[in-house]
From TrEMBL:
Gene name, Swiss-Prot/TrEMBL: yvyD
The organism of origin for this protein: Jeotgalicoccus meleagridis
Superkingdom per UniProt: Bacteria
Taxonomic lineage of the native organism: Bacteria, Bacillati, Bacillota, Bacilli, Bacillales
CDD domains documented for this protein: RaiA
One function term, GO molecular function aspect: ribosomal small subunit binding
Function: Required for dimerization of active 70S ribosomes into 100S ribosomes in stationary phase; 100S ribosomes are translationally inactive and sometimes present during exponential growth.
Coiled-coil annotated residue ranges, if any: 75-102
Membrane-spanning segments: none
Classification via Pfam families: Ribosom_S30AE_C, Ribosomal_S30AE
Gene Ontology CC entries for this record: cytosolic small ribosomal subunit
The protein's name in its UniProt record: Ribosome hibernation promoting factor
InterPro entries: HPF/YfiA_ribosome-assoc, HPF_long/plastid, RHF-like, RHF/RaiA, Ribosom_S30AE_C, Ribosom_S30AE_C_sf
Length: 187
């Protein structure tokens, strides 16, 4: 059973909102053979412009489902984020089932019969074929994160890989959706 943990920011999570979220998340259980005993972490935020943002993360063994949606109508945002999660499941069901069958030939993580309602006609197995269209090789130059951000901006990219001068490890700077910058450091 997927238990739902809801956290609200700038909004009181009413019983009606809680029931709607729990009902929608429960619909996802039909896609699993053995419903994972896990928690769905739901963040509901209301911004200054009164737009609702909902984020749902469902961590499971070997798989994490995550989606977010922003909408003027909070209930519509909930419906849309559940649709996104269902698309993720449909898209990756073959790959994940194959991975589980390698460990146990009789096991399937996802319930295949849940997909046989005609809704999946466009989701074919060619999603399994990952094609790399372009490959690039370059030497990582030692620099600090500020220099890497400047280099990224000069190139017009959304991310930049570099060798961190301070840690001597590979790091990545990236531009976030809010226009600020993020840094990913490796061990």
């Amino acid at each position: 059973m997927i238990r739902v943990e809801i956290r609200g920011e700038n909004i009181e999570v009413t019983d009606a909102i809680r029931e709607h979220v729990e009902e929608k998340v429960a619909k996802l259980e039909r896609y699993f053979n053995d419903v994972p005993n896990t928690h769905a972490h739901v963040n509901i935020k209301v911004r200054n412009n009164k737009r609702g943002k909902i984020e749902i993360t469902i961590p499971m063994k070997g798989l994490t489902l995550r989606a977010e949606e922003v909408h003027d109508d909070l209930y519509a945002a909930i419906d849309l984020v559940i649709d996104k999660l269902e698309r993720q499941i449909r898209k990756h069901k073959t790959k994940i089932n194959r991975k589980f069958r390698e460990k146990n030939p009789d096991a399937d993580f996802f319930n295949v019969s849940a997909f046989e309602n005609g809704k999946e006609e466009n989701d074919t197995d060619n999603d399994d074929d990952i094609t790399i269209f372009r490959s690039k090789e370059f030497t990582l130059k030692p620099m600090d994160s500020e220099e890497a951000v400047l280099q990224m901006n000069m190139l017009g990219h959304d991310f930049f890989v570099f060798n961190d001068r301070e840690t001597d490890g590979t790091s990545i700077v990236y531009r976030r959706k809010d226009g600020k910058y993020g840094l990913i450091e490796t061990n």
